[in-house]
Amino acid sequence: MSDAAPARGFHHLAIQVRDLGAALRFYRETLGLAVLRRWQARDGGPGERSVWLDVGDGAFLALEIVADGPKADDDAARPGLHLVALRIERAARVGWLRRFAEAGIAVEARTAFTLYVRDPEGNRVGLSHWPDEAPDEAA
């Protein structure tokens, strides 16, 4: 038996993106996540290679630029990351629906606990208020 302590808590999630600017606008302006750190290109050239965004409780979401590759939703049935879900208050659900509508972002699915959208790269993003169920009229 190992003497290593079990992993506890969420540290960070990294999402590879082709268009760092568009992804950053979505996560900052639409979802309201604050920038924690910006990383310059490794070769010293212009631009950034990564931006870290605060998701609370010491955890962060890293947007990492990648030159090419398939979009996240090109093969929805493939194994791997299914979605990133961020915590919201149940009372904020209607406000989020309004915010997405104003930003022209389609809510592609919803349950009594979670709203689902796609980021500009096609990654599935959920805003969840589990275990607080929304009233039927808001679901």
Summarize it.
The chain is α/β, with parallel strands linked by helices and 139 residues long. The chain has helices at residues 20-30, 93-103; strands at 12-17, 35-40, 48-56, 59-65, 84-87, 109-110, 114-118, 124-128.
Outline the structure in words.
The structure is a single chain. This protein has 139 residues and is of the alpha/beta class. The chain has 2 helices and 8 strands, in the order βαββββαβββ. The longest helix has 11 residues, at 20-30. The mean pLDDT is 88.
Q: Secondary-structure map with pairings?
A:
Elements: E1 12-17, H1 20-30, E2 35-40, E3 48-56, E4 59-65, E5 84-87, H2 93-103, E6 109-110, E7 114-118, E8 124-128
Parallel strand pairs: 1-4, 5-8
Antiparallel strand pairs: 2-3, 3-4, 6-7, 7-8
Name the descriptors:
139 residues; single chain; four-stranded mixed sheet; 2 helices
Number of strands: 8
Largest sheet data? 4 strands, mixed
Average pLDDT value? 88
The portion of residues forming beta strands comes to: 25-35%
* Coarse shape: globular
Helix content: 10-25%
Helical segment tally? 2
Radius of gyration using CA atoms only: 17 Å
Structural class, please? Answer: alpha/beta
Written as H for each helix and E for each strand, in order along the chain, the element string is EHEEEEHEEE
What is the terminal separation in angstroms? 47 Å
Unreliable sequence segments: none
Strand order in the largest sheet: 1-4-3-2
